[in-house]
Amino acid sequence: MADAHADAPHQAGLRQSLRSLAVGFAWVSAVLVAGAMLLILAAYLLFIYRPELLRDYLRNALVEHFSEPVQLSVIRTGWKGGPTVQFQHLLIGSAAHPDLSLNDVDLRFFALPLLAGNVLVRELDVASGSVKLLKNAQGQWHLAGLKPGHSNGRFNLKLDPARLQIQHFLIELPDNQHSTDLHLQWLSTGGLRPDMQIHLDWAKGGSLQYAGAAGNGQWALHGLPVAWLHKLEGRLPALQGVLSAKGSLVWQDGLSSALDGHFQWQHPGFTGSKATGVQGQLRWQGFTHSGQLEISPISGISAQPLSARLRLHWKGRLQGDFSAKRLPVQLVMDIAGPLLPAHWQNWRQSSWHGNLRDMQVHFARIRNSQKLGWQLQTRLDDLDIPALGQAPGLDGLSGHLDFQPQQFSLHLQSRQLKVFWPRYFAHSWFLQKVSGHISGRWNAQHWSLQAAPLLVYGPGDLQLTASIGPQQLHLQARLQHLPARDINTFLPNQGISPALQRWLSMAFLSGTLDKADLRWRGPWQHLPQNHNHDHLNLQAHFHNVHLHYAARWPDAEHLDARLLWTGNTLTVRSHGDISGIPVREAQVSIGNLDTALASPLYAEINTPLPMAKLLPCLRQTPILRHAQTPPLQLSGEGQLHLALKVPFHHEKTQVQGVLALQKAGVKMGNWRAESISGPIHFQRDAINAKNLQGQFVGGPAQVSLQAKALDQQTHLQMQLQGSLQAGQLPLPQSWQSRLHGVIPYQVSGTLENGRLRLLGSARLQRSRSSLPAPFNWSYADETPVSISGQGLWDRAFDLTVHAAQGQARLSWKSEGRHWQWRAAALRLGAGPLPKMPGYGVRIDGQGQVLPVDEWFALLPAGGPGGRLPTTRFDLHWQQVQLLGQVWQHTRILGEARGRNWHLRWRSPQSAGKLTYQAARIPAQAAAIHLDVQKLVLSPAQTEPLQSARRASGMTSSPAWASGGPLDLDAHMDHLDWRGHLAHDVSLQAERSPSGWQLSALKGEWLGSHWDLSGAWLPHDGGMTTVQGTVQSHNIGPALEALGMNSLEYGQARYTGKISWPGAPWNWNVQHLQGTIQSHIKNGRLKKMGTDVSWLVYVNPTTLLKDLLTLDYRPLFGEGLFFHALSAKFVLGKGLARSQDIRLNSSALAMHGAGTLDMVDQQMNLNLQVYPLQSFDWLLGDFPLLGPALFGHSGKVLELNYLAQGSWEHPMVTRISSSSAKDK
């Protein structure tokens, strides 16, 4: 208690102190409030009485901040619950293009803040206006026209509590090509929590809207081009499409504290994406100095929804996370490309393929730092990464990746991986089962890699093990069963001669690399170069390779080779075929492979060489390059030793070789050289062959050949000499059999600067020719044959031949890479050559004898055939021998064009023309038209026709006897045969493969009309058949011309069919076969003998009949007159046999049988003569009495005769009846 009473005074003092403090605070507060009121009152009084101070303040502030002229027009100040300012126009800048303009502005301010220098707007009404915004060098936007240094300066004009009514306001955002206009409309009720409506429009219907109270409202975005974001902030990626969104917004002091909404991104244009729109939800949580943005889920750009989270710190720190289950890698490059380091920016412009799975991206940017730190962790799924810079292109990359801007770590696991590294290799690698761990770090200029171990399986059973350190690479690889054409897959782009690189890329056409082992140790940046401390060893075995060395070099085929590459030296030993030529042994070596100018390739070849395989190579030489068409053939064998030095640059290849021929052969068309032996030394541009021995056309020959400067101006010399067998010249077999003996010859030729010259001669005195004239000669004929020729090897060449028979000139012309014969001019006999035609053959001259029969006998089987060049000829012959006839002083001229002929001839014995028209199509027949004005056949020449044909050697079946369809139409105006003229003789015949069909042979000869047909079948010995009719009012002269003089006159008709072996002109009466039926009326037989002719006179009763029939011929002349004479003969073996020869006359009747010998013109006939014709009519034909008295014949008198002997004077002998019956 005592203590309590002791503390009472202290408590009372404390209460008194507190009361005094409260009273003092009240007084101070009252004084301050009074002072404030006094200040407010003073301000009101100041601005009420001095409003122009506010006008000057605004004008000075604008002039201070803007460098452009400031114009204020029609400005008024006043007081309306506070100071007010009204003006009609405010312009900053030029009147035409102002930086800032306001029209019809009404401003109302709070008075007290003006005393502190703060312009706090109470009300703002703007009818219309515009402002222009520009971007500075740092990428920040500011008002156009601001003075330098004032872009961030404060202009103390606050609109937060103001009532705003902005009707039409234009915001211009200029760009390099065009400007973007934004139309703003802003309505606000003002106060501490005003209601606001903001509407921002732009082109194509886009807009941004906000409606609600200050700090809380709804927003909507329509049609915003996403490309504007990159224009507003250059560090943002340049994307495409149109963005629309809407949602709610909570904000305070100009900062958003919460945002929730939905967005839709149409046509984003992501590379490789097929989506036409991206959708998602937006959520934002903001704080005083930081904020966090979440976008989840995002759909439309990947198979699975994505999510993203972004953390911001207002004081410069940026942090963010991004995650996705499956994301196309191209989308990552499109969006995150600007965030990559500068040395990776080229990658974002390339095409990427593949996906990133379970991706996590963390990024952060520290305050005051321009660099963005990031880390990517993901699982790669078959990525296709383009090759850029020193990095390889990868397709099919799979594994786990941890990537940062300066380093990475990759756990590689790819089933199939395509590697394209153009910096080091020319072609892509297709690898399999690739595994290993690779890490790398960027050292300002290149990557430093580490990998241990790295296992790779690839093409050709590739097995690769690699260990990569910061400085060293240890590589071991084995390759098996790789197609040779895939070798260029492993061809390096660096560290190898460019020429060798190009050659290796095209050389291997087919084959197999059976096995290859590679070992490498050294810095991996040096691969495949070989420095002092590096080591490279490659061993390879090739099988059945087809190797192409160069364009004009022969290919190597079926090549088996062993390759050894150690350091900078490459050695190859091989055997195979070169252009089909077996090569037993070849060795190739190359040095200094790591330099641009590698050492030359040295090659040696030793092998037997079949000459037939060498011909394609020879055709590529400068000499034969322009002569591709000659039918050149080589045979035999030679031993080849060849040494090559092949540089891989502009220098020429050096060649040194020897070809030792061993019984080789050369054939050019029908010309043949055999058993050629001897050495041929050659270099790249030179050939030297001396004393080559062999056989040419069956005789010994010696050849020498020298050539030099073959790669520049070719210079070649050739000599050929020897003796050939005349019977082995390349002529038809029928010609060869008529040539005998040997012909010595010598030929020399030079080829210099493309000009070819030939000189040669031959001697005929040791040979003989039995060919028909004019190509016949005999032994000891010393007339020489000389040849000469000259021309340009690649253009034209002329050859001239001089012989005893005449001279000829032949011309060839080059057509591109082919030689063609062009023209020829020939002269038979003495005289100059005719003018050379432009194309074709011209033949002129004269000769002694032309034995056409003998030349026909030498025609080859099937006729001459083929197409002839245009040939014109004009020849004079002293004699022309044809079918046993001899025509004197004959001129033959005409033309042959292709397969058509036109021929005219004239001589004292014959004149006419012949035309041959070849068939245009195979099914059509060719045609011969023969028009003969006259033809005289001499009897002395036609009778021994067969013997003349045997002497000529003409065959019975010439070449033209059968063949393709051929029509013959011949007409003879005058035919003189045996001194008698035949008129209007026509012949029509057709040829077929089986022979000739004679359609018609008509003519008039010695009063007889011939109408015949037949056939000529030349096969199997040949057979000619003729059938038809011969009619005449008086057949006597015709029979007499044929050697049959027994008939003086008579009206005759002959019918029959005869045949004989051989050709038509080969007929002989001894070989005739067939039948002939003859009917002769009202004729007279010449005297047959006195024993027969007297019967006419002892039978006067016949006169009565002759008188009654008015036939008075029995009264005149000698011989036997008859009414009818008929017979049927069977021909065979030169005999004509008949059993039915009948003669009826007024004096007698006769029936005969027997044989006529047509060879010896003999007869042997049995004749039964009935001389008493009158009694026979009266008694023999009387009924009953005649047969009873005279037998069944009814003849009163019957006499039997035997006629024998020649046709001219037969002997007629009477024989008894019994003898007649026996015969």
UniProtKB/TrEMBL annotation:
The chain crosses the membrane at residues 21-49. Keywords: Membrane, Transmembrane, Transmembrane helix. Pfam families: YhdP. InterPro entries: YhdP, YhdP_central. Residues 32-1212 form the YhdP central domain. The keyword Transmembrane helix applies. PANTHER family: PROTEASE, PROTEASE-RELATED. This is YhdP central domain-containing protein. It comes from Acidithiobacillus thiooxidans. The lineage of its organism: Bacteria, Pseudomonadati, Pseudomonadota, Acidithiobacillia, Acidithiobacillales.
